[in-house]
Amino acid sequence: ELGVSNPLTFSRVHKWNDIWSAKSTQVLDSLRRRYLTRQYGMRFGSGSDTHAVLQQGLQAFKTRVVAMFVDIRGFTNWSADRSPDEVMGTLDREFELMARIINSKGGRVNKIMGDGLLAYFPANKLSEFADSAIEIQQSIRENRLLPAGIGGDFGEVIMGDLGQETRLDYTLIGATVNFAARMCDRAREGQIAVSD
């Protein structure tokens, strides 16, 4: 079975399976590169060679980070008498603002969990963590969004894919993450709590 003629090879006709195979490989390779670059960029740096990242593969690893938890305060009561569109629209605006600030300071949002989020910064960006926490609180007030508490801790975490074959979640775990969550619980609305 003959496939299509490729104008870039001056009307040479290829077998369809060869074209499909080459195209599939390119698409899968592109997706894999984007996934690994996004997920492992924190370890290798944003300007890292993608080939080096691909050689590493999907492995869990230990690294030092600043973990940040942000929790919107009073969300359950606020959302009780609101429409789903208003609730989701408000969360979208608030998380978009937070993510923009975190990303601009060299951090990464790891996940959004209901009315909260988990983010992390490389170990050498401790001051950027502090700057982004302050800026998030200021921006929430200026934009009259729902108030939030922010908690953070610095230390070693394990980063990698966690779960099962049908549902993998790239995450960070460890005492540092747990302690950052506890600091967030202690922070009142508009406050930032960090470990000593």
Count of DSSP E strands?
8
Order of helices and strands: EEHHEHHEEHEEHE
The fraction of residues in strands falls at: 25-35%
Helix coverage percent? 40-55%
Count of alpha/pi helices = 6
Classify the secondary structure makeup into a structural class. Answer: alpha+beta
Shape: globular
Radius of gyration: 22 Å
Quote the average pLDDT: 80
Stretches where pLDDT falls below 50 for ≥5 residues? Answer: 1-20
Brief overview:
The chain is of the alpha+beta class. Helices cover 46% and strands 31% of the residues.
Structure description:
The protein is α+β, with helices and mostly antiparallel strands and about 200 residues long. It has six helices and eight strands; from the N terminus they run ββααβααββαββαβ. Strands 3, 4, 5, 6, 7 and 8 form a six-stranded mixed sheet that branches. Strands 1-2 form a two-stranded antiparallel sheet. Strand 1 and strand 2 form a beta hairpin. Helix 1 crosses helix 2 and helix 4 packs antiparallel against helix 5. The N terminus is likely disordered.
Spell out the blueprint of helices and strands:
Elements: E1 2-6, E2 12-15, H1 16-44, H2 50-56, E3 61-72, H3 75-79, H4 84-104, E4 108-113, E5 116-122, H5 126-142, E6 148-164, E7 167-173, H6 175-186, E8 192-194
Parallel strand pairs: 6-8
Antiparallel strand pairs: 1-2, 3-5, 3-6, 4-5, 6-7
